[in-house]
Amino acid sequence: MQIFGVDIGGSGIKGAPVDLDRGDLAKERHKxxxxxxxxxxxxxxxxxxxxxxxxxxxxxGATFPGVITGGTARTAANVDKSWIGxxxxxxxxxxxxxxxxxxVLNDADAAGVAEMHFGAGRGRKGTVILLTLGTxxxxxxxxxxxxxxxxxxxxxxxxxxxxxxxxxxxxxEDEDLSWEHWAHRVxxxxxxxxxxxxxxxxxxxxxxxxxxxxxxxxxxxxxxxLVPAQLQNNAGIVGAAMxxxxxxxxx
Length: 251
Fold this sequence. Notes:
single chain; alpha/beta; six-stranded mixed beta sheet; five-stranded mixed beta sheet; 7 helices; 15 strands
């Protein structure tokens, strides 16, 4: 079974058909740059471009970097604030022609669902937290295998700042931090999250997960197991497709 997944990020929008039996992309993903400013109309146009690249006409799942309830954006941390209050499912469905159903969920939640089913969290029933280190920091919290949606732990305060302003991979790039310096910031952030939730497993996702060997061994003093995401930066696409498949199943 194949369903299309789109991952909307602050810097890029990428998508592909997903093989839901294997939990992997059925075709090489197509990526375009997120328009700046990242307004609803501008992003919706780019989502259509990604979907049309494959000639796809069926159900579509999409991620969004913010809190999503009932298909509507409630926050918009790394995209234009005009997203707040926008029914994203309706907007994208209209832009794609209105025939195929669209399902939208928080980007880190999508990545977490994919990792729990197909990746590093498979079979884990305790408290598991996936963190995506990218333009910001996304989070997905699971307990007993169930998702606690829209946790947004990247916005916890750390030393007087939003944690993602200090420990995201964008912060590393913007401040030209060494791997050692950045790993120390990530360590402080993980210690703070661990103090609050006592997870048994942290899964580190986002684009930087491809280079996990450069920073995860530098992180010390965390009691929880600390592993990279197995699906790496494709996890959001896979999780979006899984959500769309679930919507189609219930229809």
